[in-house]
Design goal:
single chain; 233 residues; Tetracycline Repressor, domain 2; 10 helices; elongated
């Protein structure tokens, strides 16, 4: 989830507070049931209204709890946002930094798998990912720096995959940094508009975006009779 910018006002928000936003399966065993419910409620509130316009009362009410319940599990509203941002970024990293992907020898297949997993994760968890992209400026400086470190890992991973393909001659000699920024942007921008009940499933979108990513590193076909053609006149 690299490439964060300022919050985009007017970005699409969940259609209803109870929407299946995929957040419930993100939090893991480090949080108890009540804390997980508070995190899921906060995701919906932050995505719909922004961090600053959301109150701790809103978050607690969304989880069916009393106004002060949040402070039993988190030190502050910012602490809730940090928990969401950290877990969201770690979850996305886990999806693409899978040993199964790292063992793929073919550069094309490895890039396809990496991009597909990246896109599928962001589509399936698009509401949480939206918060992770557009609300980071509200984090305390030390928390912001920790999340920035996680975001840099995405860039390094994608850069290694593309650079290895270029070095092996499987990809065109592209500007690796520019291409990686483009690929990351493809996988992230969808959080503004994606809906699970839309035309494409996360898997379909992942395959389509993987095709787009591969087109960025594919050598152009020689034009018959052109300067790269081996045909004689």
């Amino acid at each position: 989830m690299a490439g964060a910018g300022p919050r985009v006002r007017g970005a699409a928000a969940p259609r209803r507070p109870g929407a299946d936003d995929g957040s419930a399966d993100l939090w893991g065993d480090e949080f108890g049931e009540v804390a997980r419910n508070l995190l899921s409620s906060a995701v919906r509130c932050f995505a719909a209204n922004g961090f600053h316009a959301t109150t701790t009362r809103d978050i607690s009410a969304g989880a069916g709890l009393s106004p002060a319940a949040l402070y039993v599990h988190f030190p502050s509203k910012e602490g809730v946002l940090f928990a969401i941002a950290r877990r969201g970024h770690v979850g996305a990293l886990e999806a693409i930094a899978d040993p199964e992907v790292a063992r793929i020898a073919d550069p094309v297949a490895r890039l396809r798998a990496t991009v597909t997993r990246f896109v599928v994760w962001h589509a399936r968890h698009h509401v949480t990912a939206r918060v992770c992209q557009y609300e980071l400026a509200a984090l305390a400086p030390e928390h912001h720096e920790l999340v920035r470190g996680l975001r840099r890992e995405f860039t390094v991973l994608f850069r290694d995959v593309v650079a290895a393909g270029v070095a092996a001659g499987a990809f065109a000699p592209v500007d690796v940094n520019r291409v990686v920024r483009g690929m990351l942007s493809l996988g992230i921008d969808l959080v503004r508009w994606y809906r699970l009940d839309g035309a494409d499933s996360p898997e379909q979108l992942g395959e389509f975006y993987a095709d787009l990513a591969l087109s960025m590193v594919t050598r152009p076909a020689a034009v018959p009779g052109g300067p790269d053609s081996s045909s004689s006149r």
